[in-house]
Amino acid sequence: MSESRPLLGILYLMGAVFLFTSLDATSKYLTQTFPLPMIVWARYGIHLLLMVFFLAPTMRSSLITTKHPWQQIARGVVLMTTSCFGIAGFSMLPLAEATAVIFLSPLIVVLLARWLLAEKITLGRWLAVAAGFLGVLLIARPGGAVSAKGLLLMVITAFLYAIYQIQTRRLSPHENSLTMLFYGALVGSIGLTIAVPFYWGGPTPNAFQTLQILSLGVLGGMGHWLFILAFRHAKASTLAPFTYAQLIWATLLGWLVYDHLPDGLAIIGIIIIALSSMSIALSERFKKTPAPGTDTAY
């Protein structure tokens, strides 16, 4: 891939992370009324239908052709579980704080890669990991405004998402990116459809709520599509710093939709997490592999 149009790639990426944040804000609102698994089911089911409708006619069997079907399924299960924990966490935490904790995942990838990928951890990376968790402590400090249970859910989400990124790193050199995206949506749809009798219920959605539910798959699907387009026009090392615009979008939407702004210490914690995670991403500029954790959508 040639980095011939990096500005266009950055614009695509900025649009993608805005859509991802809009997805988080919408799911947070819907979980106040409807069962959480139903929200996740709609997110993956509609995403899957969009891929079948728009990509299957041209890609045909190549959309589902994979050399590693069991690894694709395992990755899809981890992604589905990540989504369930993440949306549960978003239902309990403000958008900005919850999004910041998810950005711990690149730091956790560094720790997991030491054992799973035999990658060396330098002193600088150890310091980045330590600083990132210090940022979480500032958000979760005694007397802070966040829910301890919600924070725990988001830390679990970050850990699961780190595992998902490790799985993606292992598969991406051998698999088509759209095929990997398809299997993620397929596994999530099937898994949550099987479990429908155990969670289906709640009030019948009105017209506006129906549009919001349908928007989950559209926001997720379009976000991933813009993300893929971004990487066609710019290198991962160029795009990585701009993924942290998601924290800005989360803060703005949290303020505009939920009338919440982080307090001073929480803002410091969010900035520390962002800088620590960004330092990991920027250090990948000198390596051949893409930066871990640059895709923050689940």
Automatic annotation (TrEMBL):
Key words, A-Z: Membrane, Transmembrane, Transmembrane helix
Transmembrane segments: 41-61, 73-92, 98-116, 123-140, 146-166, 178-200, 212-231, 238-258, 264-282
Name this protein carries in UniProt: EamA domain-containing protein
SUPFAM superfamilies registered for this protein in UniProt: Multidrug resistance efflux transporter EmrE
InterPro entries, sorted: EamA_dom (IPR000620), EmrE-like (IPR037185)
Coiled-coil features, chain-numbered ranges: none
One GO CC term on file: membrane
EamA domain ranges (all copies): 8-140, 149-280
